[in-house]
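Internal ticket - ligand job 246, adenosine-5'-diphosphate:
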Amino acid sequence: MSTWGNTDMTVPLLQIDGLNAWYDRSHVVQDLSFHVNAGEIVTLMGRNGAGKTTTLRALMGLVAKRRGQARFDGREFLAEPAHTRFHKGIAYVPEERRIVPGLTVRENLQLGILGQPGKHDLTAIVDQIADTFPRLKERLDQEGASLSGGEQQMLAIARAMVAKPRLILLDEPSEGIMPLLVHEMFGLFGRMKAEGTTLLLVEQNVELALRISDRAYIIDQGRIVHTGTGEALLADREIQERYCAV
Ligand SMILES: Nc1ncnc2c1ncn2[C@@H]1O[C@H](COP(=O)(O)OP(=O)(O)O)[C@@H](O)[C@H]1O
Ligand SMILES: [Mg+2]
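stdout (C-alpha cells):
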C-alpha cells in the first residue's frame, strides 16, 4: 500500500507541530502541537485572549510572524502564502462574517466559488448548499446584509462550503447569536460532519461544542494545557471552570 497522501489512514488530515505566532514582539501562540483526523470535529477552547483566533489565523497564513510545522494531508504548508489554503481544500470562517453589502444571499454564496479552476454549475451548487441551509434557501434573493446576525453567520459558513472544503476552520460561530439559531447551527455542524467535512472549531459555548466534538484542546496563555475526548471534557467541570470561563 502506498504511504503517500490520504491513502495512508494513519496520517491526520491536519497535523500541527510546534506552532508559534507573534504580533510584533508579543509571543501569542507558543509551541502548539495538535492534530485533526479526517472526519472529526475538534474544538479549541480557552478564555478570551488565550490565543485561539491567532492559532487559526497563523494556520491560514494571516499572521506574518509564524514558525513551526503544519501539514495538511501529510504536506507542509505553514510557510506558504495565505491564498494557497483555498486550493488545498481548507476553508476559514473568521469571527467577523464579511457578508458583502449590496449582494443577495445567492450572490454571496456564488462568491464562494470564485477563484476555483474549472467550470461550475453555479445554480446547482447554490441549490445543493441551500438544501443544507433551509434558512438561507427561503432568503436567496434577499440582500445578505439584511439577514439577522445568526443568519449572516450561516451564510458565511454556507459560502465557505460552496467550494466543498475538506477542512473548515470556524472561529466562534455562535458568538452573539440567539439560542434558537445556535442550536440550529450546531445541528448543522453534525450534518457537515456526516457529509464528510472535517471541522476545527473555536468555541466559547463549551457545553454545546463538547457535545458534538470528538476531541478538544484547551489553550491557556498560548499553550495547550489539556486535551481529551469531548465526552471526558464535558464531565470535567473543574477544567472547564479553570480554563474556559469567559
Ligand atoms: N492584531 C493584534 N495585534 C496585537 N496583539 C493582538 C492582536 N490580536 C490579538 N492580540 C493579542 O493576542 C492575544 C491572543 O489573542 P486571540 O488569539 O485573539 O485570543 P482568543 O481568540 O483566544 O480570544 C491576546 O493577548 C490579544 O490581545
Ligand atoms: Mg478569538
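Auto-summary: Residues 5-97+164-243 form a domain with the Rossmann fold fold (CATH 3.40.50.300). The mean pLDDT is 91.
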